[in-house]
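// run 5 | inverse folding | seed 20
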């Protein structure tokens, strides 16, 4: 099965980039634990990872970038949501981007 962009976009969808369907084993980690899962789809800005065990919403994670040219690259992101199948990660693009997104998340999270 080739990589195809998902074309259906729900009304409340915030994603701007094309999502690509895949089924690839992926490893990721938080500061305290290593995990493995199945990368189900990805875009420039995010990932959906199917897992049996997942990190909490708001947790920072490091994943191996699903780069088709075979060059492994670690990427950092933040768990934004989860459901019974897995969780969504928003990827950071720079240090300033990371700080801005963390601040935005902290503002909407109850203390």
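// decoded
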């Amino acid at each position: 099965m080739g990589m195809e962009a998902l074309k259906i976009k729900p009304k409340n969808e915030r994603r701007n980039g094309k999502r690509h369907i895949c089924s690839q084993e992926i490893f990721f980690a938080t500061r305290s634990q290593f995990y493995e899962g199945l990368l189900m789809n990805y875009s420039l800005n995010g990932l959906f990872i199917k897992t049996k065990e997942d990190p909490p919403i708001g947790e920072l994670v490091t994943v191996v970038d699903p780069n088709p040219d075979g060059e492994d690259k670690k990427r950092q992101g933040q768990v934004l949501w989860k459901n019974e199948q897995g969780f969504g990660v928003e990827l950071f693009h720079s240090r300033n981007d990371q700080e801005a997104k963390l601040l935005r998340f902290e503002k909407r999270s109850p203390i």
